[in-house]
Write a structure and sequence with these properties.
The protein is α+β, with helices and mostly antiparallel strands and about 260 residues long. It folds into three domains: about 45 residues; about 110 residues, Outer membrane lipoprotein wza fold like (Roll), CATH 3.10.560.10; about 90 residues, 2-Layer Sandwich (wza like fold), CATH 3.30.1950.10. It is about 30% helix and about 20% strand. The chain is built from seven helices and ten strands. The strands form three sheets. A five-stranded mixed beta sheet has the order 7-6-10-8-9. A hairpin with a 2-residue loop joins strand 8 and strand 9. It is elongated, with a radius of gyration of 28 Å. It starts with a helix and ends with a helix. It is a multi-pass membrane protein. Keywords: Cell outer membrane, Ion transport, Lipoprotein, Membrane, Palmitate, Polysaccharide transport, Porin, Signal, Sugar transport, Transmembrane, Transmembrane beta strand, Transmembrane helix, Transport. It is found in: Cell outer membrane. This is Polysaccharide biosynthesis/export family protein.
């Protein structure tokens, strides 16, 4: 009986250490004396610069709209198309050389420009080549949505598109079904595209200082990966009560097996 009690205590100790600590399930833990987050976030909000494979939506307006009709997309008769699908077909994709190809203007290099700089560039080219100042040319350029992919321990993994100028990592994850208890918030990976290739960045969503990170705001085509905690791979419970129940089941199985063996 003493051996049985010792076995019970041993199993209970092993499984209790496999519980997921409450602090690891939280966001915004103040692990140090954080700086003024409001000021830091403002510093992080640098304008995005156009990269290869981005899709730009471009609209040109003038006093006589018929003169710029060729530069604007034609309304699709397919009412079942989503906003993302319309942007894909009507937008201008940045090719491998950083160029977009526009009617009457030809190829224009926009790699590394902000959307505001692209607007100024297009207005200048239109005024130089086709229109006069009296035409009152007005160009708007936007990214065709913030497209990103979330993988791993989230409720709804997959590729998402949000139609807004900026998206932080918490908004991206919230739109992907949230991170379950078994997700490792401390070791989230951001896989980001650069002109020279892809790089992997680590961020800790458990720490409030994540708002100071240059990767707090995601960029188009980012891949966000949330790895599982080791408790999931071990197959243990997420809470102490779940582990106690598992221990009780195992102990009952062991006890029954011992009794049956002794009767033989």
């Amino acid at each position: 009986m003493k051996k049985l009690g010792f076995l019970f205590l041993l199993l209970l100790g092993i499984f209790s250490t496999s519980c997921i600590p409450h602090k690891d399930t939280l966001y915004f833990v103040n692990k140090a004396n954080a700086l003024d987050s409001l000021q830091t976030i403002k510093e992080m909000q640098k304008p995005y610069r156009v990269q290869i494979n981005d899709i730009l939506t471009i609209r040109v307006k003038a006093l006589d709209q018929d003169n710029v009709r060729i530069l604007n997309p034609i309304d699709s008769p397919n009412l079942n198309m989503t906003s993302g699908e319309k942007s894909y077909y009507d937008g201008f994709t940045v090719d491998a050389h950083g160029n977009i190809r526009m009617p009457t203007l030809g190829y224009i290099n926009v790699l590394g420009y902000t959307t505001e700089e692209v607007e100024e560039l297009l207005e200048e080219k239109l005024l130089e080549e086709q229109f006069k100042e009296t035409a009152n040319i007005f160009v708007t350029v936007k990214l065709a949505g913030m497209r990103f992919t979330v993988m791993g321990e989230v409720g709804s993994p997959g590729t998402k598109t949000l139609f807004q100028e900026q998206v932080n990592v918490f908004e991206a994850i919230a739109n992907s079904g949230e991170i379950p208890v078994t997700g490792n918030k401390k070791e989230v990976l951001i896989i980001r595209q650069y002109p020279q290739g892809q790089k992997i960045h680590h961020i800790d969503l458990n720490d409030v200082a994540v708002m100071q990170s240059p990767y707090y705001y995601i960029q188009p085509n980012d891949i966000i990966y949330v790895p599982p905690l080791k408790q999931k791979s071990l197959g243990t419970g997420e809470t102490l009560m779940q582990n106690v129940a598992t221990v009780a089941t195992l102990l009952s199985l062991v006890t029954t097996s011992i009794l049956l063996i002794n009767r033989l």
